[in-house]
Design brief:
two-stranded antiparallel sheet, 168 residues, Herpes Virus-1, 2 domains
Length: 168
């Protein structure tokens, strides 16, 4: 004989399954990008998002750790920053998110990311005292000669050196 709670559990599971199927059908028949549909769903709860923050979980995807913090203090992973932002052909690895995908607060921060195919960019400068001046002078001359749009140190993830005054 069925218990009353078993009937309620079955009804609840059926209701969840029906809603999921309706949502999946809506997604599959929609011409909108999945990201747009996801953003619409997130924004349904924007008042709740205004109170919630995390530095351990990206609340946009719940799959990765956040690496970039917006002005509203919500933090997003690199993948979500790429999905919710605009970049230009001139600066394809610089991303601008106009509004937080969680609470719709305007955002003026710009995020730079290296391409997913790029490895760790390291520089090692050896030589102490006067010998340390040579590689540093070379880097200064290189930066000046090729007129980089940003400082040379921005092209490296980590720097090592011995007795050259190098710090990362």
């Amino acid at each position: 004989m069925n218990q009353p709670w078993e009937s309620c559990t079955r009804q609840f599971a059926t209701a969840v399954e029906d809603k999921f199927c309706q949502y999946a059908f809506k997604l599959s028949s929609s011409r909108e990008k999945d990201v747009s549909m996801h953003r619409i769903t997130l924004l349904k709860y924007k008042e709740l998002w205004k109170e919630i923050r995390s530095t351990k979980t990206c609340f946009s995807c719940f799959a990765r750790s956040p690496e970039h913090t917006l002005e509203c203090e919500h933090a997003l992973c690199s993948s979500c920053v790429t999905e919710y932002s605009k970049s230009t052909d001139i600066e394809p690895w610089t991303f601008n998110i106009e509004f937080c995908p969680l609470c719709e607060t305007p955002n003026d921060k710009i995020f730079s990311q290296k391409p997913s195919t790029a490895g760790i960019r390291a520089i090692i400068l050896e030589g102490g005292g006067i010998r340390g001046i040579v590689p540093l002078s070379f880097l200064e001359e290189l930066e000046r000669t090729i007129d980089l749009p940003m400082d040379i140190q921005e092209h490296f993830d980590i720097a090592f050196g011995s007795s050259s005054g190098i710090s990362n």
